[in-house]
Amino acid sequence: MTATALRVGATSFKLRRRPLLVVAGSLVVLATLLVADIMIGDFPLTAVQVVDTVLGGGSRRDQFVVFELRMPRALTGLLVGGALGLSGAIFQAIVRNPLASPDILGVTWGAGAGAVSVITFAGSLGVVTGSAASIGVPLAGLLGGLVAGLLVYALAWRKGIEGFRMVLVGIGITAVAGNFTHYLLTVGDVQDAGRAMVWITGSLNGRGWEHVVPVAVALAVLIPVALIGGHVLGALQFGDETTRGLGIRVNLARSFLIVVAIVLASIATAAAGPITFVALATPQIALRLAGTAQPPLFGSVVLGGVLVVLSDLVARTIYRIELPVGVVTAVLGAPYLMYLLVRSRREARV
């Protein structure tokens, strides 16, 4: 693989051509998908109209349709996909298991349990009212994801984090949070259950700038942090002893990166609901395209955005009524999960 060394002060980086080409190509695809996503709707626009409006032109109607109605939704999908892709790449690099993702480790279902709690108690039960009810769903989703992720981390800790144990604990937390969520669906009335089901399926419908900003801020802060920690993820592939020999405090670095991954997944889920399988599949797709030893972090961010925006485009056009984007990612991701399970079983036999 062709690589070029880049030195900035006392720090040096190795730039490999193939991962860079994957990122460049993915950015082109992502830009094309964003334009296509903004074009479609009750007031169809051409690609030229979309580009002209984004660059400052267009009529007042076009500006309203692009900036107020469609761009927030497209950007929410892009950012949520990027956050989920990065979260999944960090989890899989630390746990060294392609099955490790916020979906499997309980973060997503924890967020779902938190959000459905507010929907139920703010609905027919009327326990949560006022502003707490209006802003409570994304906030409760964020808190639920954080609580579930930190609980998995605490229960899996035995003088350090071991990947297989963390996956098993995560599956247990997923089961508990999932059953609690299903119980909540039986407590409220039919309308509450319907709202809750739409949320836990994962949807970009009705997303505005208030959903874009939190995820954008989180990514602006956490992407550089994750990229700086990328050398730790690379060292962890050689085992804990080798990593300690390189002068890295293994448990501290691993714990910090896991918290970063939990926060990313929780914020993404709070913005759009639990869009499943993106965090699971994106890092492995990026790894195979880039030909690297571990999931590339920035490549996973871009491909995560591509997957969610593409899925949203399909969800809006494949049927006469709009489907939640989580339905499309689940249809794409379920066969991929079965493929991973079959491949893991074959590798275990070898």
Automatic annotation (TrEMBL):
Keywords: Cell membrane, Membrane, Transmembrane, Transmembrane helix, Transport. It is found in: Cell membrane. It is a multi-pass membrane protein. Belongs to the binding-protein-dependent transport system permease family. FecCD subfamily. InterPro entries: ABC_BtuC-like, ABC_transptr_permease_BtuC. The chain crosses the membrane at residues 20-40, 74-95, 107-129, 135-155, 167-185, 212-236, 256-277, 297-314, 321-342. The keyword Membrane applies. This is Iron ABC transporter. It comes from Lentzea guizhouensis.
